[in-house]
Design goal:
The structure is a homotetramer. Chain A has helices at 2-19, 33-36, 44-53, 73-83, 98-107, 113-129, 153-170, 177-188, 207-225; strands at residues 25-31, 61-67, 91-95, 133-137, 174-175. Chain A is an alpha/beta fold. A five-stranded parallel β-sheet of chain A has the order 2-1-3-4-5, with helices on both faces. In chain A, helix 3 packs across helix 9 and helix 6 (113-129) packs parallel to helix 7 (153-170). The first copy, chain A, is globular, with a radius of gyration of 20 Å. Chain A binds chain D through residues 104-105, 108, 143, 147-158, 160-161, and chain D through 104-105, 108, 143, 147-158, 160-161.
Chain lengths: 226, 226, 226, 226
Amino acid sequence: MKHLSKLILFFPLLLLSFANPPKKVKVIFFGDSITQAGVQPNGYILKLDSIIKQSHLPNEIELAGAGISGNKVYDLYLRMEEDVLAKHPDIVIIYVGINDVWHKASSGTGTDADKFEKFYRAIIKKLQDKNIKVILCTPSVIGERNDNSNQQDGDLNNYSNIIRRIAKDLALPVIDLRNAFAGYLKVNNPANAEKGILTSDRVHLNEKGNLLVANEMWTVLQQMVK
Amino acid sequence: MKHLSKLILFFPLLLLSFANPPKKVKVIFFGDSITQAGVQPNGYILKLDSIIKQSHLPNEIELAGAGISGNKVYDLYLRMEEDVLAKHPDIVIIYVGINDVWHKASSGTGTDADKFEKFYRAIIKKLQDKNIKVILCTPSVIGERNDNSNQQDGDLNNYSNIIRRIAKDLALPVIDLRNAFAGYLKVNNPANAEKGILTSDRVHLNEKGNLLVANEMWTVLQQMVK
Amino acid sequence: MKHLSKLILFFPLLLLSFANPPKKVKVIFFGDSITQAGVQPNGYILKLDSIIKQSHLPNEIELAGAGISGNKVYDLYLRMEEDVLAKHPDIVIIYVGINDVWHKASSGTGTDADKFEKFYRAIIKKLQDKNIKVILCTPSVIGERNDNSNQQDGDLNNYSNIIRRIAKDLALPVIDLRNAFAGYLKVNNPANAEKGILTSDRVHLNEKGNLLVANEMWTVLQQMVK
Amino acid sequence: MKHLSKLILFFPLLLLSFANPPKKVKVIFFGDSITQAGVQPNGYILKLDSIIKQSHLPNEIELAGAGISGNKVYDLYLRMEEDVLAKHPDIVIIYVGINDVWHKASSGTGTDADKFEKFYRAIIKKLQDKNIKVILCTPSVIGERNDNSNQQDGDLNNYSNIIRRIAKDLALPVIDLRNAFAGYLKVNNPANAEKGILTSDRVHLNEKGNLLVANEMWTVLQQMVK
């Protein structure tokens, strides 16, 4: 009887184990139009999903996009409750900064460097208060010339430095897209073209750009879920 | 005996009255450098305080400044928990918009009209969620010429229209400083000077400007506390 | 004898008249994309040509466009030798200023007011040095809202004031398009739309806009050729 | 007779030589506020004059400043007849471009890259038409950080590339200040400060900056007058 009862008790647990597979790690990508396009075919989020499917962790990570075209750091802050916190992610990857720099010249509505940092830190704090892990990204490119002669290169380098400094301060992982793009373009843009290597229009990623971002993200992300 | 008992009953009430005077209505002024200067001598908040002291409500209203130089609407949103909600005001007067317009030209970091409205409404919502009454102000001036030829006049008129529309939508009182300044300058700026009538530098208020703002505010504020 | 001599005197003049028809007054329109489009079907220059053909001066005025998209006042100055002086006009109508104002916000490359005036006066001087008559135009619109709430209204009003002041200083005729558009839109834009009344896109003229400009120009131009 | 005739021929030449000492080579520095300050004590033009006085050519070169604060390339073009051509220089050193880039962000009134090139070439052409030799300079710095993270670094690099390309096209000497400053700051700005190494305020030269410019200029200038 004793053994039987044990067996009886054991079975339901086993069944339960089958019925409730281990909860997946939920990753939300929080950003602008590049991230909005990331869930399109060939987008970096779908590409990353394919990479994961073929990795040693095929069933353990769930990806979701939260990108909106034109967003700057303060737009993320404004909508983070609804678009991120309400979805209870385990990890949030923040990929923002291009519009903060770009809109200075294109409409006079960019973001000052000191305020960029303030809002960026405020977003991180709100995420960490909910025990969400945070990964930062430096902004990729506005123009693909590889000799630091794109109009916004200086400013993008500055905002990337700010993000790297925040990452260091808070001991957070950073996916250094700015660096990765620069390295790739040094080798693969011999004609010093403005676009067409990793972007279609100087900013938005073509398929190679999306793949580069997916690979860079996977390198960092797998450290956090293994 | 009768008289005595009355006296006995009366005393505790009197003591109570001394111990717990009627709670004052707490008004916070939430804005930029103009509001930051509002608590300086000759500032509009001190002037309003003097006006109130001489009114029929000398002891019922308490004023507090929450202005920070350079602030735009999203800066108010970022710091409102700490600087406003934590202080439990009864009424908040929002006076913002000048930097949102001005910084477009002066540093490329103004605020797009649609985002101005979004953050403005988000601030109001957070205040109303705490049962705080809200009063809106239209932005005063960037330049005092009275023929609509100051560089930012069109944009200030547009942002004022946005604020008036929000006020109408939400049935909130609005202190129409834009209108009040225009009316005053029509009469009192015959030489069509850029500054020196109500401002010292095209934006920041001189004593007359502070007095005008204080009077405009009192007209609306007394409706809410009488 | 008397009659004969008259006849003799008369004949050579008649012959001369056939051999050398009265030289037409040559008018060049010097400006930006609005003027570049002015020589297209429905463009204001073609419309003005039709008006002239039906006037009391059908054969006395010759019109030529010299508009290039994106031009600001200093672009006109740079290319005026080749595009205007080399063509020996009798009258030049200058219609510029919209890009000088607009490009401040759209690319950070507008023209400061003081430099706008300097180059404007330098163009006039070069034309007058060649005995060319000059007619000035105030810039029409960037946005058609009629309550002075288009972003650039203040600046356009300011640059219009500059042009009016130059015209007064130098006793030159001015075609006040800014004024004419404002008057028209006050009456014909009851919904306060941003575009679609006189422009297709807030700036470039639709057929009604081209007709309005042609009519305004004719009113001034015929004073100079009658 | 033979000797005498030689002597006779010789004397007038000798007298002529005494009466008309060898004409000095006149060099005009054509630029903005940096050049305007160049003729002040410690300014780069005075420093260059000192360097020349101690060189092998102490009496052969005459320097004159033609710098005006706030000037962009089109301002040089506008005033070049009066301020440069009228003074009959032998050599003109053009040092412009900082305001063309800087004013994009600070007032929305910078110069588009294509128009910068157009006016730059137009200035050179007018100088060469008068047989004046032209030396170009790349723009120095807006901010002294040495990791390409000053806001305008990308744009300054782009405008420097334009100037280098013009110089190559027209086989003109170029004083590459952009390069010289970068090299110096790499070594001498270990704290990556924004200012205080070669400038007082990120743009205007301190004594070391003026000396660096003077030395760079002398290296190129002496090639043209030796």
